[in-house]
Amino acid sequence: MSMIEGIKFGSLASLVAVTVAFSPVLAQQPRKPNVVVMLMDNLGYGELGVYGGGLLRGAATPRIDALAGEGTRLLNFNVEAQCTPSRSALMTGRFAIRSGTYEVPIGGVPDGLTQWEVTIAQLLSGQGYATGMWGKWHLGSAQARLPTNRGFDEWYGIPRTYDEAMWPSLDETRSMWPSVGDKQGWSARLVEPEPIYEARSGEIPRVVATLNVDNRRTMEAEITRRAVDFIKRNASAGKPFFAYVPFSLVHMPTLPNLEFAGKTGNGDWADCLAEMDYRTGQVLDAIKQAGVEDDTLVIFTSDNGPEATNPWEGDNGPWRGTYFTAMEGSLRAPFIIRWPGKVPAGRVSNEIVHIVDLFTTIAHVGGADVPKDCPIDGVDQLDFFFGKQEASNREGFPAYVADRLSAVKWRNWKVHLVWQENMYAPPQKLPLPKVINLLTDRKEERDVAAYNSWVADPAMKIIGGLEESFKMYPPIKLGTPDPYTPPSR
Asked: Is residue 315 domain-shared with residue 463, that is, in the same domain?
């Protein structure tokens, strides 16, 4: 190469370098924020220290309490009445009554979300996010409906529920529980045990273990280990990630890892609270150690109110009722959100937010558009979470228990249409609605409808709007198989 040619080549290289550095098209785009959602299982309102529990329940929860101080804590975050409906609402931004997922599935019919529904994992995956989930899915046990066919790159966990861990123990004669007997008790020949899967998108899920009491005790440790690895791996690669961490605690059977058994000296429940706090801390430490704390939106919440079955009853705090009802103890769940520099630290709010809102809000965070061909009930709460406004973008919502419209919440009022105080009480349709002032009557003991009948008007507007949308978009029936096509309008 001659000197002149060399000079020309050098000038051209310099020009290209300058163009790349300053071109608005080629300049490096801002990194998308990461999203970590830790969803506890049946964690009642009164369990955590910052919600009045902690030491009063036998174990301090310092890591979770500290998280609340670093972000915003909600006193009026609301969920659906059962596990499957809440998880469906989170994944789709739609009230579960719309999706045929309004109750915990019982065997014999197709369970979970139809493939027609769009999940938050699918939306974020379309925006270049790595997506991972570890824990209970509960939104379909057929292979086509498992998480890695619904937008998640990887998954470890169970398709249904932790109750099934008890099946293999029913005939243990050395247990403190009465043995049913191998002639009439559970048998794998009658009903297959629940598998624990390991799966990656595009591959057939592998069964790595069977859910039993021993494996149930180790679920939290394994969920955490895999979530931590995912966070560090993708942070190191510079890839934005969505980590959905549905923990197993404190779902019945509420059993701690043997590493924590006896640690508090206050029994299994307290030991489980201690383990839950520790595992949460491990996930938070992974985010910090990966150097992405300031770029990560963290949400800590629960899918339901407290357990109702002896001996695993949970604590509903100042409220009344258990999950599987429309009482406040069922609907209100702990909720903490942190995003350093964006979400105000130490803020506490009693504004209404519903779990469907997380779908729409997280989609906004990830730069995704929500579906336009179906009703999305979730509202974008980002400005509220950021402290740009004091009021939530939601004033109320309908509360379904299974397919029964049981109550309506509006501001600090509650209108009961069906009365059911706990999971095992029969639901009773009321001849006249009960109106409760939640500011003066947290136990929902006094019906003040006689002199507050005006509350029925905003409540009926919520019901009326929902029923109108049902005419245009009929709800999907429970047990609907794939492929599902909505009726033409």
From this structure: no
Residue 201 has pLDDT above 70, yes or no: yes
Instruction: From residue 456, give the alpha-carbon distance in Å to each of 125, 413, 434.
Output: 42, 10, 10
Label residue 28 by pLDDT band (50, 70, 90).
Answer: low
Q: Is 374 a catalytic residue?
A: no
pTM over 0.85: yes
Q: Which domain does 213 fall in, by range?
A: 34-171+191-394
**CB neighbours (10 Å) of residue 18?**
10
* Cβ neighbourhood burial of 92 (10 Å; 0-12, 13-18, 19+): buried
Per-residue pLDDT tens over the stretch 257-283: 999 999 999 999 999 999 999 999 999
Q: Is 138 designated active site?
A: yes
| Cα separation, 50 vs 69, whole angstroms | 9
Give the mean pLDDT of 424-432: 97
Chain centroid offset of residue 235 CA: 23
On whether both 128 and 267 belong to a single domain, the answer is: yes
For residues 165 and 114, the answer to whether their CB atoms sit within 8 Å is no
Specify the CATH number for the domain of residue 416: 3.30.1120.10
Task: Please enumerate in sequence order all residues whose Cβ is within 8 A of that of 299, keeping only pairs 6 or more positions apart, or say none.
Answer: 35, 36, 37, 38, 335, 336, 337, 358
- Interhelix angle for 356-365 vs 83-92, to 10°? 30
Mean pLDDT, residues 147-152 taken together: 98
